[in-house]
Structure formats: structure tokens, C-alpha cells
Amino acid sequence: MSEARRYQQLRSHFSYLKLDNAAEALPRILDQARAENLSMTAALERLLEIEVNATEERRLAGRLRFACLPDPWTLADFDFAAQPGVDEKLIRDLATLRFLDDASNVLFVGPPGVGKTMLATALARGTAEAGNRVYFTTAADLAARCHKAAVEGRWATCMRFFAGPKLLVIDELGYLPLPGDGASALFQVINQRYLKSSTILTTNVGIADWATAFGDATVAAAMLDRLLHRATVVGIDGPSYRLRSHQSTSDKLRKAVNAHVS
Ligand code: ADP
Ligand code: MG
Questions:
Q1: Which residue stretches, if any, does this entry annotate as coiled coil (predicted)?
Q2: 127-136 pLDDT per residue, tens
């Protein structure tokens, strides 16, 4: 076989195996191998590393598309100094993702604007970057989706969907009243993930008030029982980040008025 034919054959092997990035890099790596006098092992390693990196990037992009995260936040975007109500050490410990290993849950509890969604999103992103399947939803969307599935006879498929991800984020529990069968759908999702995979939940409803928020004390108790059995509860009781600029504007205004009066 001539060298030219062998080269064509090699290219067609790459394309048959769909190693497109390696195929594209092939001429460059062969040139480098000649110029730098690389060993065969070194050249092959360099070539396949290109394909591996591209595959990793593609898979991560796919996982992030699937995850439906509301924003591209990472923990680096969270300003701990601006939120004294958050225990930074605890959040950094959660960011090691140890909680995924024993299927522990994380509950972010606090008033609006304190960064619950942001922290949940950052942990979810870290989980996806570590190679896991993640899905982000709100409690209201989850309830609506389960309700639709039940009506259309796809309940089992819907339950399988929510059982699948290594990490499920359920945002904003308690902001909106859940529709009729919403609490029971939520309970079933939590129950089937219990001890198998982690769930992060954010809520503005203090745990003591769950029974009233759900309308059904029995379901609330059963759900809390599953959720809290292995869980980290992160209470955030600080100032609203959203209202920060309003706060400083109104503070300035007040000072100006007071100065004028006195
Ligand atoms: P919550 O879910 O508790 O209502 P969010 O996570 O949605 O609050 O935060 C509200 C807004 O304030 C978002 O735009 C978020 O990025 C921002 N924010 C909140 N806390 C912080 C913080 N500590 N550092 C930086 N941005 C923050
Ligand atoms: Mg939120």
C-alpha cells in the first residue's frame, strides 16, 4: 500500500468512527511528530487527547442544555460578603458535591431575594460539570407537568423522568399554591428519589409552616420526613440582594430629608 493510500485509509477510519476532531487535527499532529521527533505513543496521545477534550465539551454542553438552568451562575458569582446570612463554609462544603454520594438533600429556606435560586443553580451547574445529569424545575412547573401527564395517561413516564437525574432542583416551593393534585405529585417525586438521588429544594416557607402551606398536613409531614432524613438545611435570613440598590437609594433620600429638616 502506498503511503498516500495509507493516509487516505487512516482518514477514512477516523471518519467511520466519527472521530472528526482527531481527523481534522491529523495533518497537524503528523507535522508536529515529524518536526519534534515525537514517539508514536506521544503522537497518538496528542491526537486522541484532542478528540477526548472535544467529546467532553460536547457532552457537558448536552447536559447543560438538558438541565434547563435559569442562569449560567457559578459559586464564584456569589458575593458572600453581601449576604452575611449565608454560612460560606457550609456552601463551600456543599460545592464539593459530597452530598450526592449518599443521596442527601439540600433545602434552602429564606425570604425572597437572598440568593436561594442562585446558590441552587451554582450547585446544579457544578454537578453537571462533574459529569452528572441534572434537571432544574420550579415546584409549580413540576406540578403542572405531572398533572398534564396524568391527564394524558403518561404518569409513569413522567415519574421516570423526574427519577432520572442525579440531582433534581425544585425551586420556589411555597411561592404559589400548588394546584389540586400538585402536593401529591411533588410527594411522589420526592418519595421515589428518597435514598437514591439528591434533591435541592428552595422555599420561602419555614419548615414549621409547611403543613399550612400545603393545605394537607399528612402529605407535608410525609414529604418532610423523606426530605429531612438526610439533608442539609441552609437557612438564609439576610437582606434581599434584589432590594439592595433600592435600600441605599432610600437611605440616601432619608438622610437628605433629615439634613434638610434639622
Ligand atoms: P431568591 O431565589 O432567594 O429569591 P435569587 O437567587 O433569585 O434569590 O437572587 C436574586 C437576585 O439577586 C439574583 O439576580 C441574584 O443573582 C442576585 N443575588 C442574590 N444574592 C446574591 C449574592 N450574595 N451575590 C451576588 N448576587 C446575588
Ligand atoms: Mg428564587
A1: none
A2: 999 999 999 9
CB crowding 57-83: b at 16 or more within 10 Å, else e: eeeeeebbeebebeeebebeebeeeeb
| Residue 32 domain-assigned (yes or no) | yes
Q: Nearest Cα to 51, choosing from 18, 82, 27, 73?
A: 18
Q: What is the pLDDT of residue 249?
A: 60
Nearby residues for ligand 2 (ion, Cβ within 5 Å): 117
In terms of domains, do 51 and 144 share one? no
The structure's pTM equals: 0.88
- Which among 129, 161, 141, 142 has a CA at the least distance from the CA of 64? 129
Domain limits for position 8 = 3-63
Distance from residue 85's CA to the centre of ligand 2 (Å): 16
Shared domain check, 181 and 108? yes
Percentage helix, strand, coil for the chain under 3-state DSSP, each rounded to 5? 60, 10, 25
Give Cβ neighbours of residue 83 (< 8 Å, ≥ 6 apart). Answer: 114, 115, 236, 238, 239, 241
Same domain, 198 and 97: yes
Q: Three-state DSSP class for 106? A: strand
Which residues' Cβ are closer than 6 Å to ligand 1? 78-79, 82-83, 112-118, 202, 241-242
Mean pLDDT of 92-102: 98
